[in-house]
From TrEMBL:
Domain of life: Bacteria
Keyword Aminoacyl-tRNA synthetase applies: no
Function (record text): May be an activator protein for the gylABX operon.
Residue ranges occupied by any IclR-ED domain in the UniProt entry: 72-251
Protein name per UniProt: Glycerol operon regulatory protein
Domain HTH iclR-type: residue ranges: 10-71
GO biological process terms held by the UniProt record: glycerol metabolic process; negative regulation of DNA-templated transcription
SUPFAM superfamilies xrefs: GAF domain-like, Winged helix' DNA-binding domain
Transmembrane segments: none
SMART domains (UniProt xref): HTH_ICLR
Molecular function, one GO term: DNA-binding transcription factor activity
């Protein structure tokens, strides 16, 4: 279930949020009954909340009576800093990487134990992948995820291992000790790679993106076919791109500071 909203102690806000989180990548269009079931709220409550959310613009009803996320909610989501400043700073470098490598290019940030994909660029020649903009994948099995986990507080790795390291392919690292050594190598090398650990046939390579203070705020990665992936070549392309993003983020901070001081 998307929420436990039958609990009488839950607030109206919590119930409304459970309606919104009933939608996900596998369930982008839902009937009213499906919303009530996935949000775990009575049908009458779902009807009232859905109506209010529809009037506000968070939901809209399509031609066959199913509900989808509304345009107004999408507009508000675009105001999130990760979608604005970070994505804006990264896009020119991601486009250049996509043109030079002809592979998939990712920008991701960490949210708890997931890598959230802020942006994804691809070309007709790129290998098919399961990631999508706004989607989530596990930290331990992806290139960008390993970078983010390697630079996260130690408690993140501990929690990740406690939850269990899901084996997505025969090559996924699922032993906590081995993952810890892998992440130490990521910090030492300055990049991460995941060869067929999330999807067979794919190799991902990623580097950290720092802000002006030196904090790792994102990971920039390329996913290529494992047979033709040249890790060293991809790292050589990724590192200056990540540094360019860092510089643009720093320039943006200086502009904002200048405005505040006027």
């Amino acid at each position: 279930m998307a929420g436990n909203s039958r609990d009488p102690g839950r607030s109206v806000t919590a119930r409304a949020l459970s309606v919104l989180t009933a939608f996900d990548a596998d369930h982008p269009r839902l009937t009213l009954t499906a919303i009530a079931t996935r949000a775990d709220i009575p049908l009458a409550t779902a009807h009232r909340l859905v109506r209010e959310l529809e009037l506000w613009g968070a939901l809209q009803r399509d031609s066959d009576g199913r509900y989808v996320i509304g345009l107004r909610l999408w507009e508000i989501g675009l105001l999130a800093p990760v979608n604005g400043r970070l994505r804006e700073a990264a896009l020119p470098y991601m486009q250049e990487l996509c043109e030079t490598t002809h592979d998939n290019v990712h920008l991701a940030v960490r949210d708890e134990l997931d890598a959230v994909y802020v942006e994804k660029l691809t070309t007709p020649r790129a290998v098919p992948i399961i990631s999508r903009t706004g989607g989530r994948l596990p930290l331990h099995a992806t290139g960008v995820g390993k970078v983010l986990l390697a630079h996260a507080p130690a408690t993140a790795l501990h929690t990740c291992c406690e939850r269990g390291l899901t084996r997505h392919t025969a090559y996924t690292i699922t032993e906590p000790g081995r993952l810890g050594r892998e992440l130490q190598g990521v910090r030492t090398r300055g990049y991460a790679s995941a060869n067929e650990e999330m999807t067979l046939g794919n190799c991902s390579v990623a580097v950290p993106v720092h802000d002006a203070s030196g904090t790792v705020v994102a990971a920039l990665g390329v996913v290529a076919h494992s047979v033709r992936a040249d890790v060293a070549r991809l790292v050589r392309a990724l590192l200056p791109a990540a540094d360019g993003i860092r510089q643009r983020l720093a320039d943006g901070e200086r502009v904002n500071l200048d405005v505040l001081q006027r």
